[in-house]
Amino acid sequence: MKIRSADFVMSNSNVINAPKERIPEYAFIGRSNVGKSSLINMLMERKDLAKISGKPGKTQLINHFKINDEWFLVDLPGYGYAQISRKKRTIFQYFIENYFKEREQLVCTFVLIDSRHDPQKIDIEFMQFLGENQIPFCLVFTKADKLGSSKLNKQISAYKKILLDSWETLPMTFLTSSSTGLGRKEFLDFIGGINED
Ligand code: GDP
């Protein structure tokens, strides 16, 4: 798939205000600093498309972008901020859970994982939440340029092993680097392929 246009549509804190248009939607989520904004910008070949979500006060929002006038890319807030208060965390969980439960046009969620980090409880729990709610997701390993291939394979195997404790089949996996562009073609072909079906 070629990216012909990528436009910011709107930011919301509540899914009921999200765009009503019934076009396929793909969501990006992961722990803060996982490389989500960089990945979105790399995929869309835009320097600061995802920067909108990085503006102070706007970080806790659901950001919709319309791609090629055909599908929505949704930039969800990063989870797992140690500094965030318990009250804020509960509100955050509530509106994110609502997003996943309410958004019927959601085709796939991309759960971003920093390739350098060992499996983290918060990521596994989040995937379990998606699984329990039958929300399709793919695993996206970011910052692959930071590791050698044997270490990278080890990290991915560690994740797969944990997931196989809970599931019979593994989610589709992408290996990406925003620095080198690794994974861009596979990623866009995957979305393009689904949209054509
Ligand atoms: P976000 O908080 O998930 O949106 O993360 P950012 O996209 O802002 O990235 C967090 C940090 O990781 C920044 O310093 C980026 O430059 C860096 N980063 C993101 N992706 C990559 C990557 O693929 N390779 C490398 N080497 N650094 C990356």
Automatic annotation (TrEMBL):
Its cofactor is Mg(2+). One of its GO terms (molecular function) is GTP binding. The keyword tRNA processing does not apply. One of its GO terms (biological process) is division septum assembly. Keywords: Cell cycle, Cell division, GTP-binding, Magnesium, Metal-binding, Nucleotide-binding, Septation. PROSITE patterns: G_ENGB. Pfam families: MMR_HSR1. Residues 22-197 form the EngB-type G domain. Signal peptide: none annotated. Belongs to the TRAFAC class TrmE-Era-EngA-EngB-Septin-like GTPase superfamily. EngB GTPase family. Necessary for normal cell division and for the maintenance of normal septation. This is Probable GTP-binding protein EngB.
